[in-house]
Amino acid sequence: MKLPNILLTGTPGVGKTTLGKELASRSGLKYVNVGDLAQEGQLYDGYDEEYGCPILDEDRVVDELENEMREGGVIVDYHGCDFFPERWFHIVFVLRTDNSILYKRLETRGYNEKKLQDNIQCEIFQVLYEEARASYREEIVHQLPSNEPEQLEDNINQISKWIEQWVKDHNS
């Protein structure tokens, strides 16, 4: 494997997609938004009436991604992470956003009140950070602040440096 696999996770609205797309365009790594992948391949297992969204078929998503992940050089973007095989990722970044900022972002997306409140609670209680820590080796899980445009640039620079170092360490 010549290039690393990276997981971007965190509560919906924290900026995973913005970061992932920009990082992919600058690094040459392939960007995969699991929500888009599921929609394109209809990788669903029903519909959640309460949240007004389809239910992801996690096994089919894993099957769909397996070959790409084995080759390496993939940035995966999804709010959940406990169903991905641990062997896939060399590093995991959990994006975090202040609740007042996150609330406005989710409100703009038109989330219903229950979905809005549940996602804010998820962020308050660091649910996805804890899920990542429980799913992967602690030393590969890192939190990144994602409140302002300047932080986006800082995060891209930090991850780009990490990618460069990983490539040097694994291809010499």
From TrEMBL:
Spans annotated as NMPbind: 33-56
Bilayer-spanning residue ranges: none
Pfam families: AAA_18
Protein keywords: ATP-binding, Cytoplasm, Kinase, Nucleotide-binding, Nucleus, Ribosome biogenesis, rRNA processing, Transferase
Record-listed E.C. numbers: 2.7.4.3
Primary location group: cytoplasm
Keyword rRNA-binding among record annotations: no
Region feature LID, mapped onto this chain: 108-118
Gene Ontology MF: a single term: ATP binding
Localization terms from the record: Cytoplasm; Nucleus, Nucleoplasm; Nucleus, Cajal body
HAMAP family noted in UniProt: Adenylate_kinase_AK6
Functional summary from the UniProt entry: Broad-specificity nucleoside monophosphate (NMP) kinase that catalyzes the reversible transfer of the terminal phosphate group between nucleoside triphosphates and monophosphates. Has also ATPase activity. Involved in the late cytoplasmic maturation steps of the 40S ribosomal particles, specifically 18S rRNA maturation. While NMP activity is not required for ribosome maturation, ATPase activity is. Associates transiently with small ribosomal subunit protein uS11. ATP hydrolysis breaks the interaction with uS11.
Family to which the UniProt record says this protein belongs: Belongs to the adenylate kinase family. AK6 subfamily.
Protein's recorded name: Adenylate kinase isoenzyme 6
Organismal lineage: Eukaryota, Metazoa, Chordata, Craniata, Vertebrata
